[in-house]
Structures are given as structure tokens and as C-alpha cells.
Amino acid sequence: MSEVERVFRAEHGRSVAVLVRVFGDVDIAEEAVQDAFAEAVRRWPETGVPPSPVGWIITTARNRAIDRLRRESSREDRHVQAVLLRADGEPAEEDVVGDERLRLIFTCCHPALNPAARVALTLRLLGGLSTAEIARAFLVPEATMAQRLVRAKAKIRDARIPYRVPDEAELPDRLRAVLAVLYLVFNEGYSAGSGEGLVRDGLCAEAVRLGRVLVRLMPDEPEAVGLLALMLFLRSRQGARTGPGGELVRLADQDRSRWDGALVEEARELVRWCLRRGRPGPYQVQAAINAVHSDPPPTDWAQVVLLYDHLMALTPTPVVALNRAVAVAEVSGPAAGLALVDGLELEDYHLFHATRADLLRRLDRPAEAAAAYGRALALAGNTAERELLRRALGAVVAPGG
User: What integer pLDDT is reported at residue 242 of this predicted model?
Assistant: First the structure.
């Protein structure tokens, strides 16, 4: 990975957030940051990486945006003149939380935007994901996602949605959308939808960091604590999820000595805190499921099924049902799991076909398993996941090859 790419992955969200504060306009901020990174691609190989790469990006983006606005506007353009006045040093308003990225998340999660647009826009602006990557996370065509992003940014501009953290009285109602954003940002980092590597550590770290900020902001909100616990459990395993060659290692085959014990214990304590509050929500239940998986083997699959039953009552989605079917297969056998999987409508989701393939393999139905692995392979975008599927497919077809 080049230094420009590393800085982009780590600092794109921060740079856009700072520029939104400076200019008060999402489009201006995003375009300016893109211009700055394009300039870095041209200049850094010759001049070297500056001492403060993110500072260079933000300063370059700010100057480029100011130059463009002055060049393209007239003196009578009051909106542009107001933007330039802000950019020339107007102090930013102090909010409940002094974090630029958190302000941007709440802007993207404003009730004026529909829920899907909120998450998509935050993935775009905070995480720097491409439209194709976001479309894959949402299981929708790329063109659909492109239109969704354009409409969301236009809505922020036309409705003059403020760039701030809501007042304390507004926070509880806005929290659900923000948690959904952080969850999908973390998931895209934890299992990148495309590219060579399985993990984008910068996205995971950013989601966890913002999760901690939210917990500090709302320390008595169990769902915020539950989401943080869930992310910590998953992040604790990152060192064991890939082998020496970058290959994906399944949870059951991971070397637990490579897990981050401090993160596991912190997550367990957060789950215990949530249990004492007695106000369960979807993120708390998912954290509890991962707490069971963090216990020494053998896994208590019956307990996992019960927790998934609870999760289905809270969020009865096809993906939750798919994960529940995996647990049912461990308790009642692969045939029971397959019967549940075959009742789901997830034809465009690669893990649906990978799960079917694994259950069919366990039922000694190799031809059907090979077809399902092939379909999963065609849909998977991440190189590490594709390699795992190739190995599984090869193991199924080898005996008859």
C-alpha cells in the first residue's frame, strides 16, 4: 500500500469533516479533499511525504476550494461570499462533543434523510469508500447507490441541515441511525467488500473510536455500550483471522492465543454492564452471542440459538435468520440448518450461497455443494474470501476430478 493510500484510508473522513466545518458544504468539502489527494499522488513521489500528511491534505484542500470558489463566483454571489468568509477564519461553534467526525456523522444521520441514505453517505464521507463498495455492502446495484448518494448530498444542501451534534435532548432519538452507521462502517472494515486484504483496519479503528466517543457522550445508553462491546469482540480476533499468506481462517480454526485478551475482557465487562441494565437491544444481543463464542471451547451452541431467537424477535432480517440457521445446524444437524437456509431470499448475498454449500457438503451432496460454492465465488468481492471459497470448492470437486 502506498503512503497516499494509507493516509487516504486513515484520514479521508477526518479531512472531509474538517472541510465541511470550514465551508459548511458537503460537496465543496468532498471535492476539495479528492483534489488534494490527487495532488498528493502527483507530488509526494517526487517531493517526499510531508511531516504531517493529514495536515498537508487539509491545507491543500482548503486552499484549492477557496481558489475554486473565488474563480467561479461573482461579487454578487452572496452564498459563495458567505462561504469564503467562513473559510477565512470564522470560529466553529462548540457542540456537546468536540469531534469533527462525530459532527459529520450526525449531519449524515439527520432525520430529513432516509435511513439507507444516512448510512451510505457516512460510509462515503467518513470512510472514503467507493460507490461500488457501498453498493456491495447494501446489496444493491451501483447505479442505484450513486443516485442515492447524489440525492442525499442535495438534501443536506437544500434543507440546510446543520453541521453539529444535536442538543442533548435530541440525542436519544438520533442515536439509532448513528449506531447503524458505525456498525456498517465497522463491518466494511472487518470484512472488506472488495480488494486484496480481508480487513481495512483503519475503518475498524475509526468505528471503535467513534463508538467510545458515543459511550462517553451517552454513558447510560445500553445499545451504544452493546455496539462497542460487539465491535471489541470482533476486533479482538483480527490477528487470528488470517494466516501467514493472508488466507482467511474460520473462527473455529483460529489460534485463540492470537486474540487480544484485553479487548475480550473489556467487551465481556461491557456485556455484563448491559445485562445488569435489563434493557436488551439488537447490538447487546449480538455482543452476547460473541461473548459465548469467546468462551473456551466447546461452544455452547444451544445458548447461541436462544440468543438468535431473541435477536430474531428484535430484528427479523434474512441475514439474522441465516446466522441463526448456522447455529441450528450445530445443534440439530446440517439438514435442519439447510431447511431454514433454503427458505431465505438472499440470492445476491455470497455468504448465503457459501453457507448452503457448507451444509450441502456436510450432507454429502457434493455436486450441489460445488454449484453453491461457485455461486458464492461469483458474488464475493474480497480476494481473501474468494480464495477460501476456491479452496472449499476444490475440496468438494477433487474426489471426482
Answer: 83
Residue 225 CA to residue 287 CA, distance in Å, equals 10
The answer to whether 202 and 388 have CB atoms below 8 angstroms apart is no
pLDDT tens track for 240-278:
988 887 778 899 999 999 999 999 999 999 999 999 999
Question: Does the pLDDT of residue 75 top 90, yes or no?
Answer: no
Contacts of 273 (CB under 8 A, 6+ apart): 222, 225
Does 198 have pLDDT greater than 60? no
pLDDT for 142 equals: 92
* Closest CA relative to residue 33, chosen from 52, 48, 50, 12: 12
From residue 104, give the alpha-carbon distance in Å to each of 283, 287, 356: 22, 26, 40
Give the integer Cα–Cα distance in Å for 312 and 326. Answer: 14
Burial 255-277 (b: 16+ CB within 10 A, else e): eeeebbeebbebbbebbeebeee
Helical H segments across 191-297, by residue range: 201-217, 222-236, 261-277, 282-294
Beta strands in 6-143, from DSSP E residues, in sequence order: none
Q: Which residues pair with 248 in a beta bridge?
A: 242
Whether the CB-CB separation of 342 and 356 falls below 8 Å is answered with: yes
- Which CA distances in Å does 331 have to 300, 327, 335, 360? 9, 7, 11, 16
Residues in the chain: 401
Do residues 107 and 161 touch, judged by C-beta distance below 8 A? yes
Beta-bridge partners for 116? none
Tell me the longest C-alpha to C-alpha distance in the chain: 77
CA of 67: how far to CAs of 29, 63, 144, in Å?
Answer: 13, 6, 33
The C-alpha atoms of residue 165 and residue 284 are separated, in whole angstroms, by: 24
For residues 384 and 247, is the Cβ–Cβ distance under 8 A?
yes
Task: Report residue 178: phi and psi, to 5°.
Answer: -65, -40
pTM, rounded to two decimals = 0.74
- Let me know: does 352 contact 343? Beta carbons within 8 Å: no
